[in-house]
Amino acid sequence: MGTRPSTRRYLKGEQTREQIINAAKKLFMQRGYYNTSIYDLFESARITKGAFYHHWKTKEDLALTILDQTKQAYEIHFFPILKNERPAREKIEQALQMLQEFSTNPDWVYSRLLAMWSAEMGTDEDSMALAVRAMRRRWRAFWEELLLSAQEQGQLRTDIPAKQLSFLMLSATMGVYIAEGNNGHMESYQALDTLRKVLFT
Known about the structure:
Blueprint: H1 5-31, H2 38-45, H3 49-55, H4 59-77, H5 88-103, H6 110-121, H7 127-152, H8 162-180, H9 186-199
């Protein structure tokens, strides 16, 4: 028995949706959010205008979908680290090691997207900019909690407040992707490894 027409249409629609999302991720990483036009998306994804508008009303809606994927990826891989019972230093080491490993994975685009969008959007007040800043605050809070725990456990210097150190960690873990540009992944991998060594030296 063959697949019913309604099922085939659904599967084709989902395939087109993923095709658009994947094309958008690449364009947003290469050009940024504001410098990517809706027509760039049509061309890169090789779709019609109607196919795009079947899934999203605007470029912003599409970008917010990708940002939601970013949040989910961090919720799965990073934020649960806060809940385990290991010493804080080990949790910081784990987070940095995961970032290193992800930096060499071409499918992990979320760290770079978050970094680029954060730098690009500044103090803009549209829905996308507000959502990016909320995600950035969550990432900084993650580091602040880990660093404060490490200080309280005597595993990290205490002469610098955890809040200030968290801004340094936020800047460093995002800045490596901006500085690296499109030149491969080894520079970010090495920079994150250096950050880990410096933090605990």
